[in-house]
Give the backbone structure.
Amino acid sequence: MVAVAAVDKFIQLTSGRVRYIEAGEGPPLLLVHGMGFSNGAHSYLPVLDRFAERFHCYAVDMLGFGMGDRDLTDAPTFDTIIDGFREFMDRMGVERAHYVGHSAGGWMGAIFAYESPHRIDKLVLLCSAGMNVEPSAGIGNAPSVPTLEQVRERTLEQFLDASKADDAVIEPVAAASKAAADRPNALASLNPLLHQMQTQRIRNRYLIQRRLARITNPTMVVWGKGDVMDPYPTWTEEYEALGGDMSQSVKPWVIPGAKYVLLPTGHSPHWEQPAETAQLIIDFLAS
């Protein structure tokens, strides 16, 4: 495996400047991170080398996150983020790409696939948010910029078994997350999106249950056994009761023909089991 030099690149989109990390050759692959004022494209550093062996990777900051513009008064919002994906792809000359989205990135990806199925080839929802009707605890802004040790502790909180964490994986993610958290206005930069997520009547417009059954792209849904975000605990019970065959599920939001995979991890399989998670996704995308 050839190590990828994680060089930050930037592009000015209509709604703001965003950072992306580009690597590899092959079919285009968009990698989108989860929620949090310290999160960004660097979330995929533990798996980027592996993906870059098969795909032309674009790990992108969602608008308003990471190392891009953090002082947007009317963004980020669901609409500006998802439209930003389309504009980013247009600017990169990418008509259609595979999409891997973790947590909130999966939420955005499900809406993106529902709205613009012709822009996505295969879709991977990695511990996706967007199905929990009530806002998740702890998604709001922190009262102060965290220390590096606090960032590292929060990273490990997403593991099922933090005692098995690999420092070679965790330290680069924690350092890059700390750099994002240190950006001017980082603590308040996500307020427009947080308002949408935390205001129930607005949140309801963007929940993905009603959209999932309409997704036509080949999709793989992955979650961890230790993921406590609703509805994954009940999904885990059903998955195990059905012997892993979620096509038998009676839930109305099961994606037609999708592959469902339960991993022995917490909320961030690409940090906890990077090699196994990357290979699972590569096999699906390449099939």
User: Anything to note?
Assistant: Residues 8-286 form a domain with the Rossmann fold fold (CATH 3.40.50.1820).
